[in-house]
Amino acid sequence: MSRRLFAFRWDVDHRVCITDGLPRIRAVCREFGVPNTFFINLGRSTNLREWLGKGVARSKAKLGDRDAVHLIKKTGWTRFLIEAVLSRPVGLSFIPALQALQADGHELGLHGGMDHVIWSRRFRELPDDVLRADVETSYGHFLQHFGKPAGFASPGFYSDHRVMALLDQLDFRYNGDAIGGDPHRAMVGTQSVRHWTMPVTLCGPRTIPFLEYHGARGTPERAMLDALDRHLADREWVVLYGHPCYEGVRDEVLRRVFAAVRDRGFEFVTMDQLVQHLTSSVAAS
């Protein structure tokens, strides 16, 4: 690649991502004149039965995770309890706001199916027909309100050959279900799929976003920016990811991150633009 390309991808998991995070992110993007990519959870973000039932042990473990910022801290107890009880859909409740984001030149992609918690916690248990119906329902809503999506991201990065095959059937151009490594085409059996897997290049441990991890650990801002700069120094393309309910509401930090990226000579692109550039480069080689 002759150009240095940077994509910031956001996983819009919860309603607070849209109410609190998106307005700040839009403002920062307008200041810098740059596009971002937003993977939208159209369905619900909480599942009271999962929190109080089989998943209670995992819920407690998340509350004690020192490397991440748990959901209750991001939303506050009041809003968390309201959403846990009402279980309202995320993206489908904010169609005009998301269409305005799209009109600004940002890319919208699809983030899983209609139940974020079940996908994140019990993906491997989902029967094939249930998984297919879940994605197809969400995809249908997306088509109706935003047009055909180019990209897909699985909640929690939980994906497998079933998802890869389905994304090919629905004619997606790429998925974001990887951390680290090079762009590649996944295998389903002995066959390579048509669409690309575009990994996040910089992350905290497990699947914790880079900025959230350093925030949870109390890393001084200068040290965090130095770590980012080291990652940017020798790369031609970079993908960073976060959640609008955490990184998005810390707009001053986001401004400094964007400035650091621009100072390193990167051009901001959407994930789809990054994939199209990669495809063109491969075809020309």
State the CATH superfamily name. Glycoside hydrolase/deacetylase
Question: How much helicity do the residues have?
Answer: 40-55%
The dominant shape is: globular
Total discrete domains: 1
The total count of helices amounts to 13
Structural class: alpha/beta
Q: In the CATH classification, which architecture applies?
A: Alpha-Beta Barrel
CATH class type:
Alpha Beta
Question: Which stretches are low in confidence, meaning pLDDT under 50 for 5 or more residues running?
Answer: none
Reported by name, the CATH topology is TIM Barrel
Describe the structure.
This protein has 285 residues and is α/β, with parallel strands linked by helices. It has one domain (5-284): TIM Barrel (Alpha-Beta Barrel). Helix content is 48%, strand content 13%. The protein has 13 helices and ten strands. The strands form two sheets. Strands 1, 2, 3, 4, 5, 8, 9 and 10 form an eight-stranded parallel sheet that branches. It has a two-stranded antiparallel ribbon with strand order 6-7. α1 packs across α12 (251-263). The chain is globular and about 45 Å long. The protein starts with a strand and ends with a helix.
